[in-house]
């Protein structure tokens, strides 16, 4: 699971369906992204990050500790 994405969505008080609709993807596709089973395109990742008010690098990038 992409914990940072989940946490950002929770802080934003949004459901998966609300985020998915706002960024133009299905809820099921969003769920796969949040569960780490699919990678979003850069465009979709940026829209998700914008919607949940989080830096895209923080949500989808590598941990600083692993670099």
Gist?
The protein has helices at 3-11, 16-23, 27-34, 42-51, 56-60.
Attribute tags:
67 residues; 434 Repressor (Amino-terminal Domain); disordered C terminus
What is the strand content?
Answer: under 5%
User: How many beta-strand elements?
Assistant: 0
CATH architecture: Orthogonal Bundle
Structural class of the secondary elements?
A: mainly alpha
Number of domains: 1
Here the CATH topology equals 434 Repressor (Amino-terminal Domain)
Mean pLDDT: 89
What is the CATH top level name? Mainly Alpha
Order of helices and strands: HHHHH
Tally of individual helices: 5
What is the fourth-level CATH superfamily?
lambda repressor-like DNA-binding domains
Q: Could you give a short account of the major beta sheet?
A: none
Q: Roughly how many Å apart are the termini?
A: 20 Å
Proportion of residues in helical segments: 55-70%
**Which regions contain 5 or more consecutive residues with pLDDT less than 50?**
63-67
| Morphology | globular
CA-based gyration radius = 11 Å
Write structural notes for this entry.
- It is a single chain.
- With 67 residues, the protein is an all-alpha fold.
- The protein has one domain: lambda repressor-like DNA-binding domains (434 Repressor (Amino-terminal Domain), Orthogonal Bundle), CATH 1.10.260.
- Helix content is 60%, strand content 0%.
- It has 5 helices and no strands.
- It has helices at residues 3-11, 16-23, 27-34, 42-51, 56-60.
- The longest helix has 10 residues, at 42-51.
């Amino acid at each position: 699971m992409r914990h940072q994405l989940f946490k950002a969505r929770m802080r934003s008080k949004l459901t998966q369906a609300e985020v998915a609709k706002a960024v133009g993807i299905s809820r099921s596709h969003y769920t796969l992204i949040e569960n780490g089973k699919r990678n979003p395109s850069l465009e979709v990742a940026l829209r998700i990050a914008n919607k949940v008010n989080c830096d895209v690098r923080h949500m989808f990038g590598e941990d600083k500790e692993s670099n």
